[in-house]
Amino acid sequence: MNQRTLIALTCAFVVFTSLAIIGQRGQEASNPTSTVFLGGLIAELDSINLIELSIGGNETIATIEREETGWTLAQRNGYLANEQKINRMLLSLAEARIIEAKTANPEWHYRLGVESVDIDNANGVAVRLTGPDLTIKVIIGDDAGEGQVYARKIDEDQSYLIDSDPEVGNSVTDWLDTNILSIATNRIQQVKIQHSDGETLIIAKEGPDQTNFVVSDIPVNRELRYESIANTVGNTLSDISLQDVEMVSDSRGQSTLTEFLTFDGLVITAESANVNGSDWVTFSVGYSSPDNLEEEQSISENAVEVEAEALRLSEKLSGWRYRIPTYQFDQLIKRMEDLLAPLPEESS
């Protein structure tokens, strides 16, 4: 290869590389990947005070309002909404970036789930965010996989694939703060279950470090199915959650009373009833000075905190009736027979 050929090849390489760089820059400039879907929202997140979610038929499924106590749900009489879920949704919308522009033809919006929610069978969820100086309206459509969804601003025909799924749900219960109570199991001293027919079941521990709850008044010639069987009852309040909630307006008929007493004096009473196939519970909370208050200085020092805890929980739970999962409800209505090993079959 002579020098003239080498120079020519070098020049050609430089020209080709330059054209490639220019082309790449031009592609990046026209590529919407780096474009934020809802520009300006990130700076206004703290000012948003109302979130409205609607589905097909323009049915409002959730009206979430920011109050002094936090986010609340209008459809559940102002019960607390799931603040973490709300914050995740808002941040997801604010940070979402456009991956690809999709159809701008309204007749094809249904293919992506971004058709107007005025249509009865619309698949998407309309999200309206409102603040003092802000109103944003979008439709979140079908899941595209890998954390991506289709979306469209309601006042525009252009739809997009965005890189963040705000997980807007499709029911008011998706937005409830589902935690009711989280009482550590090692705090529970005694559980007393009183049924409407008069049967009473009592389980207890002598100290926080005791492994298993002891069942009182086991019938003669009967034994437990296994030694730790009562622990599931004692563990009930460690993470009890709701599926739905309503304000207490009337009596639910025959019910079971379950009283939980902690070593430090917290008293939680659950009133449980099955109504039309659903399991509902109300809670009341109080404080009872432990018998060993004088003996245990650490408990005495903690008394003020426990009384404050009782007041806080009472304010949260009073006036509400909770629908809870069946497996948790069943622990609140246990009977002695549920804990006992079956009787041996009589020989013929």
Could you explain how this protein is built, in words?
It is a single chain. The protein is of the alpha+beta class and 348 residues long. It has 2 domains: 33-175, Immunoglobulin-like; 179-339, no CATH class. Helix content is 22%, strand content 31%. It contains 6 helices and 19 strands. A hairpin with a 2-residue loop joins strand 6 (125-131) and strand 7. Residues 5-33 have low confidence and may be disordered.
Count of helical regions: 6
Order of helices and strands: HEEEEHEEEEEEEEEHEEEEEHEHH
What ranges have pLDDT less than 50 throughout 5 or more consecutive residues? 5-33
- Give the tally of structural domains: 2
- Overall geometry: elongated
- Assess the beta-strand content as a share of residues: 25-35%
Arithmetic mean of pLDDT: 89
The assigned structural class equals alpha+beta
Oligomeric state of the chains present here: single chain
**Helix share bin:** 10-25%
Q: How many beta-strand segments? A: 19
Radius of gyration: 30 Å
Q: Terminal Cα separation, in Å? A: 108 Å
The main sheet orders its strands as 4-3-2-1-6-7-8-9-5
**Biggest sheet, in brief?**
9 strands, antiparallel
